[in-house]
Amino acid sequence: VSLTRDAARALDAADPLRACRDRFRLPDGLIYLDGNSLGALPEATVERQREVVEEEWGEELIRSWNSRGWIEAPQRVGARIAGLIGARPHEVIVADSVSVNLFKLILAAAALSPDRPVLLSEAGNFHTDLHVASGAAEVARLRLDIAPREAIAGRLGTDTNLLLLTHVHYKTGARFDMAALTARAKAAGARTLWDLSHSAGAVPLDLNGAGAELAVGCGYKYLNGGPGAPAFLYVAEHLQERLVSPLRGWMGHAAPFAFTDDYVPAPGIARFLAGTPPILSLIALESGIATFDGVGMDAIWAKSVKLFDAFLALVEERCAGHGLECISPRDPEQRGSHISFRHPNAFELCQALIAQGVIGDFRAPDVVRFGLTPLYVGFEDLFVCVERIRDILETGRWREPRFAVRGKVT
Ligand SMILES: Cc1ncc(COP(=O)(O)O)c(C=O)c1O
C-alpha cells in the first residue's frame, strides 16, 4: 500500500537530510522535481555571487586572478567534484560544456590507438553525445557504430577504439554497470568514456574503483551550479600524460604567461583547459557543490531509493487506469535518481502540473520525468505531486488548449 499524507509527513520529520532543504532557496508552495535538469538555487550562491561581483571583480579587479584564487578555480572545483565521484582530486577539472569536453576526450583518446577505427555508442544516447561523436568521428576518421543497448557489449571487438556511454540514461534513468562494461571494453583493448551528467551528485560513483579512464559530466543538474554552469572532465592519472587535447588553448599550456609560439601541454589534467575559465559560473558551481558538504553520497542515495519507491507506489495505486507507464528500472542498482513515465499526453500533463505548482519535465515524444533530488525533495512533496497528477488526469484538465502550447525549451 502506498503512503498516506500523514505517513509522508512522518517520513519527512524523521528524514536525516531534512535540514539540507534549507540550503536552497525555493519559492514557497512550489514543488520542484526538475533538479535533474536544472538544480535549485543554493542559498549560499546568492551572497557568494554578490561578493564575487562587487568585491572580487568590482574592487580587486584583475588582481583577483592571483589574490582570490581565480586562476586555480578549475582545479579547485574539480577536486571537490572528485570527492563526489570516487576520483582523486587531481583527476578532475572544470571546463567548457559536456559537449565540448566530449569532443576533446574522443579525439584525444582516438589518437592513442590509431589502429582501431570504431567509435561505439548507444542508440538513443543523449543527442549531444551522438552529435559530437559524429563530428569527432569525421575529424578522426573513425567509424561511428551506434548499437541498441542490449547489443553494445557484443559489439566490442579488436576494432573498437572507444566506447562512449551515458552512465544514467537521461530519459529512462536506466544505469549501466560501470565496472562491468569498463572491464569488458578493456578486455577487448578499448577505452571507455562515461557521460556522468545524470550520475554525479545523484548516485554513488567510484570511478577509480570501477577502473574508469575517461569521463565528463554536467554542472547544472544535481551539482546545483546554475543555468549553463561549466562541466567537468575526468582523466585517470595513468592516462593524463599520454593524452593531448585537440583544443590547444593557452590555459592548457604549461606556461600560459610565457607567451611562446610553441604549444607545450600543461602537466596533468590542466592540459584540458582551453580558454579563460568563466569565473562567475565557476564560483556558482563551487557554491552548488558545497550543498553536499557533510552529507555522504550513501545517505543521499538511500533517500533517493525511498523517494522513488514511494512515488512509484503512489502512482500505481492512485493513478491506476490513467495510462501512466513507468519506464524506469525498478531495481535500484539499475537506475539513477529520476523517475519517468510514458503517457500519450505527457506534454500537456506536464504543463498542467506546472500550472499547479509542480515542476517536472517532458522528454519527446511521450515521457514525463521527475527528478528526485534528496537534498531538497521530501515525501510530502511527492504525495502532493501524485494527487495533482491524479486530479489532472481524472478531470481531463490537461485538455485545456493553453497546455498544448510548446515553448522553445520543453
Ligand atoms: C547525458 C547528457 N549529456 C550532456 C548534456 C548536455 O551537456 P552540455 O549542455 O553541457 O553540453 C545533457 C543535458 O541534459 C545530458 O543529459
Query: What is the percentage of strand-forming residues?
Result: 5-15%
Low-confidence stretches: none
Percent range of helical residues: 25-40%
Describe the global form: globular
Number of helical segments with 4 or more residues:
13
Q: What is Rg?
A: 22 Å
Outline the biggest β-sheet.
7 strands, mixed
- H/E topology pattern: HEEEHHHEHEHEHEHEEEHHHEEHEEEH
Find the structural class using helix and strand composition.
Answer: alpha/beta
How would you portray this structure in words?
With 410 residues, the chain is α/β, with parallel strands linked by helices. It has 13 helices and 15 strands. The strands form four sheets. Strands 4-10-9-8-7-5-6 form a seven-stranded mixed beta sheet, with helices on both faces. Helix 1 runs antiparallel to helix 13 (379-395) and helix 4 packs parallel to helix 10 (279-290). The longest helix is centred in the C-terminal third of the chain and has 22 residues, at 297-318. Bound molecules: pyridoxal-5'-phosphate. Residues 97-99, 126, 128-129, 166, 170, 195, 197-198, 218, 231 line the site of pyridoxal-5'-phosphate. Pyridoxal-5'-phosphate (PLP) binds at residues 97-99, 126, 128-129, 166, 170, 195, 197-198, 218, 231.
TL;DR?
This protein is of the alpha/beta class and 410 residues long. Helix content is 36%, strand content 14%. The longest helix has 22 residues, at 297-318.
Itemize the secondary structure elements and their pairings.
Elements (H helix, E strand, L loop, with lengths): L4 H9 L10 E2 L5 E2 L8 E2 H15 L6 H4 L5 H13 L6 E3 L3 H15 L5 E5 L4 H14 L2 E5 L4 H4 L4 E7 L11 H10 L3 E5 L18 E4 L14 E4 L1 H4 L38 H12 L6 H22 L6 E2 L11 E5 L3 H10 L2 E2 L1 E3 L3 E5 L7 H17 L15
Helix pairs in contact: 1-13, 2-10, 4-10, 5-6, 11-13
The chain binds pyridoxal-5'-phosphate.
The site of pyridoxal-5'-phosphate has 13 residues, from helix 5 and helix 6.
